[in-house]
Amino acid sequence: GTVVSVSTRGQSTAKAFALSLLRPGRGQFYQRKQTRGIVYSMMMTAAGMFALDYHNKYDEAVNEYEINLERFAAAGTETQRQTLSGREPALWDSVEKRKLERNIAYGVLAGIWGASIVDTFFPGREDAPPSDLTLDLGPSHALIVYRF
User: Residues 119, 28: contact at Cβ < 8 Å?
Assistant: First the structure.
């Protein structure tokens, strides 16, 4: 599990940088910036889910386009070829639209990751009260703990 203490002294920026490279928000937790760590972790999770969804939609559009091409090549009559040929521009437009959506989602994902990494170089407020809220994300669990 992850142990988060409330001391703000003696935190290595290099270690926080490395931790944020591995998982956005982790470096912030190491630096005792709990709120920022939770925000980056949640934003990264949401952005990752959207990126995966857009990637799957792009794959589906490409598969539909390729199936149309295979049917066109196997068509036995000119009428079938014309019908399938008429669908090609709309299917290609769908592929291009999904590709743009996927690339934007990847860009947002990379932006959040980069912001998390850059944030490790900025110190937290020394006068900020310690947070009683911690977040622990693992391969099979997600825990939000509030200590009172």
Answer: yes
